[in-house]
Automatic annotation (TrEMBL):
Keywords: Membrane, Transmembrane, Transmembrane helix, Transport. The chain crosses the membrane at residues 47-68, 80-99, 105-126, 138-156, 168-187, 199-219, 225-242, 263-288, 330-347, 353-372, 434-455. The lineage of its organism: Bacteria, Thermotogati, Synergistota, Synergistia, Synergistales. This is Major facilitator superfamily MFS_1. Residues 14-461 form the Major facilitator superfamily (MFS) profile domain. PANTHER family: MAJOR FACILITATOR SUPERFAMILY MULTIDRUG TRANSPORTER MFSC. Pfam families: MFS_1. GO terms for molecular function: transmembrane transporter activity. It is a multi-pass membrane protein.
Length: 463
């Protein structure tokens, strides 16, 4: 039976809405890095404070991700996506007009909260609109939009900063946000409602958010007593959260999946380590290339784009190979390649060849491609159909937690070396030393990740 014209039109609109929702958050997450030096000069902020521009976005995204997944199931995926898009647009407007650094950070928090709703809703509306026979193709296009956002962020961001300064980074996304909201408002057939079954557990949301806040706020402030206290409080709250989820018949985050299969548990832990070992690299290299090597934002963005471009090119191949061979082994290979790329970055200094940096980015991009797609395949292939939603949400949470932890480690290293409040170009040798220290930690995390990835064993059948 041929689909009706109205049904085909609705599917096209849903696909465009999903692509915009999947593109914008990763684009802003990567594009803002090339504007950090200009922000630092305008607001007189050091490297550690500038790291908060990236960290606050990821922190808000991480805190809101689990409640967003549950809430959208209850109240409607498309409605939640629209709410998230509106909040994200308010964050963009606030960032573009921010007169002070604290208000800029508040705007980034709004972007992160809105991005959580957009991230969850973008995939969910595709699943609702497309039948199983068409779903794999459109989900593949959706993943390509995520990688496109990451790839274009440094390049397009550098061009925008060169053209009119860092504030243009916040003005430009308002146009696709407005178009997305207009498409949602006129979507053929209207916006479907959620299941309405169950409730959003406010206590679990509070424990999840406060516990995560303590962990992410405490790590960069170690070994100060306030950092240790925040870390301990966060760990206790997350322990209470985990206990509540394991006892609940309607959990916010189903942690029981970690106890049912080694592949699921170790694959998620490997994802956490992989993103923890890679996300802070772009932040450090953006400051290094512009403040120490003297490159323009455009040229720095082009160099930083090597890694996501290689990842985008090889991810489809890695995904196809993971259908033929053990995805766990391929993901372990990818983790090893990522570690090799990080090892190459240890040779960077104030006079080293930029070709070496581009080569390191290419190796990391290849590692990312051979890790991400096979690891996702391993996770989703280890659970039954009824747990696919929880597995997808948990993987997204591992990604954001890893990215947030990566920035927290960078801030901790900068503070321990006394560079947190120093302008990034004031002590080039000290900055290079701190950067190498971070790359060494990241390479160590990659090595640990290889062993965790191999520990998952052979592919397990879904139960």
């Amino acid at each position: 039976m041929e689909p009706s014209p109205s049904d085909s039109r609705r599917k096209r609109w849903v696909l465009w809405i999903s692509l915009a929702a999947s593109f914008l958050p990763p684009f802003m997450a990567s594009a803002v890095n090339v504007g950090l030096p200009d922000m630092g000069r305008e607001f007189a902020q050091g490297a550690s404070s500038l790291g908060a521009v990236a960290s606050v976005f990821l922190f808000a995204l991480a805190v809101c991700l689990a409640p967003a997944g549950k809430g959208l199931d209850l109240y409607g995926h498309a409605r939640g996506l629209g709410t998230g898009c509106g909040v994200f647009a308010l964050g963009c407007l606030g960032g573009a007009l921010a007169p002070t650094f604290p208000l800029l950070l508040a705007a980034r928090g709004l972007q992160g909260a809105g991005g959580a709703l957009m991230t969850v809703g973008g995939v969910a509306i595709l699943t609702e609109a497309f039948p199983p026979g068409e779903r794999g193709r459109v989900l593949g296009v959706n993943v390509a939009a995520v990688y496109l956002g990451i790839s274009l962020g440094p390049t397009l961001g550098g061009l925008l900063v060169d053209l009119a300064g860092w504030r243009l980074l916040f003005w430009v996304p308002l146009l696709p946000c407005g178009a997305t909201l207009a498409l949602l408002a006129t979507l053929p057939g209207g916006l479907p409602r959620g299941t309405g079954r169950g409730v959003l557990d406010g206590v679990s949301c509070g424990l999840f958010g406060l516990g995560l806040s303590g962990l992410l706020w405490g790590v960069p402030r170690l070994p100060e007593p306030r950092g240790a206290a925040a870390l301990a409080a966060g760990a206790i709250l997350w322990g209470v959260f985990a206990r509540r989820q394991l006892r609940s018949s309607n959990p916010l985050l189903d942690l029981r999946l970690f106890l049912r299969g080694r592949a699921y548990a170790f694959s998620n832990l490997a994802a956490l380590l992989h993103y923890g070992a890679t996300y802070g690299v772009t932040f450090l290299l953006s400051l290094f290339l512009q403040e120490i090597r003297g490159l323009s934002p455009r040229d720095a963005g082009l160099l930083l784009a090597v890694q996501p471009v290689v990842q985008t090119l090889f991810s489809p191949l890695a995904g196809r190979l993971s259908d033929r061979f053990d995805p766990g082994r391929l993901a372990s290979l990818g983790m090893g390649l990522t570690g090799a790329g990080l090892g190459l970055l240890l040779f960077q200094d104030t006079r080293s060849s930029l070709a070496l940096l581009a080569a390191a980015g290419a190796v990391q991009g290849l590692g990312f491609a051979f890790f991400s797609s096979p690891n996702t395949n391993a996770i989703l292939g280890s659970v039954g159909r009824g747990d696919l939603g929880q597995a997808s949400a948990t993987l997204a949470l591992m990604r954001v937690l890893g990215q947030s932890s990566s920035m927290a480690l960078v801030a901790a290293v900068l503070n321990l070396r006394g560079l947190g409040a120093v302008p990034t170009g004031a002590d080039p040798l000290g900055m290079v030393g701190a950067m190498r220290g971070c790359f060494g930690l990241f390479a160590g995390l990659s090595v640990l990740g290889v062993f965790l990835s191999l520990a998952r064993g052979a592919k397990e059948p879904a139960s």
